[in-house]
Amino acid sequence: MHSREQISHDEYQKTADWLMSQTRHRPQVAIICGSGLGMLADTLKCQDSFAYSDIPGFPQSTVQGHAGRLVFGELKGKTCVCMQGRFHMYEGHSLCKTTFPVRVFKLLGVETLIVTNAAGSLADSLQPGDIMIIKDHVNFPGLVGLNPLSGPNDDKFGPRFPAMSGCYDKGLRCLALDIAKQLGVASLMQEGVYAMVGGPNFETIAEARLLHRLGVDAVGMSTAPEVVVATHCGLRVFGLSLITNKVVKSYEDSESVNHEGVLEVGRLRSHTVQQLVTELISRMEINNNNTINTAV
Ligand SMILES: O=P(O)(O)O[C@@H]1C[C@H](O)[C@@H](CO)O1
């Protein structure tokens, strides 16, 4: 684990410059697709897509259900960039590598980041197939010093000590709940607290009980570092957890979770997640006025 690896501003800039030389899209919104949720990119029109292996400086995806493609395109009048596949700490990436794309998005002019993930539920009110709007998170690796912002601060991106108290935008959370009502899927949706654990193993029963007692509603292995870096550099953030399984909390329970089951729930709910994200992007207000840059 190289958690203290540093990436210079120039390296982020080089990747952003390369992307801007390859596509005329200038994205306002970035989407990170969680396990089994890569179909979110399919909604984009006028696509330009790049394999991660072709993008200078980009890490590689190694997890099944994470295709490893960056897709640019238009959605309901907004320009978007979508990561079909994210990077996890448990793959052996340093935290600054797992969050590398977020700073590149900032340099591309992105203003809003939408993060999605697959997660197991601890709250009794959350069933597999439900969608949790992330209200807040507990960054367990971060609490013990595994933080992508560790090391010298890059003041060009943000301050040394960024506040995280309002990191999931309240206006977007309210808008998403409103959209859920209009789409007739409000019964599937509620707000909750996501916790990131390091993975790659799923939780023991004792760990599940601990998380439950701490007030965690859903647990996963990603998202928090991306949100920390996004908030540090001033991006507005919206997050969704697709609940793919109930975390086993009882010694009497003979069920156990596996990655195939996680991906399967992603496929089953793909249409609803797509509709929600599309409507949210369509209705969100954007301050800047990026459109396709015909000069490139
Ligand atoms: O990328 P996400 O957080 O959606 O992936 C979750 C956590 C693990 O990577 C995997 C477990 O099935 O899904």
Explain this structure to me?
- The protein is α/β, with parallel strands linked by helices.
- It has a single domain (12-283), classed as Rossmann fold.
- The protein has eight helices and nine strands.
- It has helices at 9-22, 95-98, 100-108, 140-143, 170-183, 205-213, 224-232, 259-283, and strands spanning 29-32, 45-51, 69-75, 78-84, 112-121, 131-139, 189-196, 218-220, 236-246.
- Strands 5-8-7-6-9 form a five-stranded mixed barrel.
- Bound molecules: ligand LQZ7MJT6.
- The ligand O=P(O)(O)O[C@@H]1C[C@H](O)[C@@H](CO)O1 is lined by residues 34-35, 63, 86, 88, 117-118, 199, 220-222, 259, 262.
SSE diagram, text form:
Blueprint: H1 9-22, E1 29-32, E2 45-51, E3 69-75, E4 78-84, H2 95-98, H3 100-108, E5 112-121, E6 131-139, H4 140-143, H5 170-183, E7 189-196, H6 205-213, E8 218-220, H7 224-232, E9 236-246, H8 259-283
Parallel strand pairs: 1-4, 1-5, 5-9, 6-7, 7-8
Antiparallel strand pairs: 2-3, 3-4, 5-8, 6-9
Helix pairs in contact: 1-3, 5-8
The structure holds the ligand O=P(O)(O)O[C@@H]1C[C@H](O)[C@@H](CO)O1.
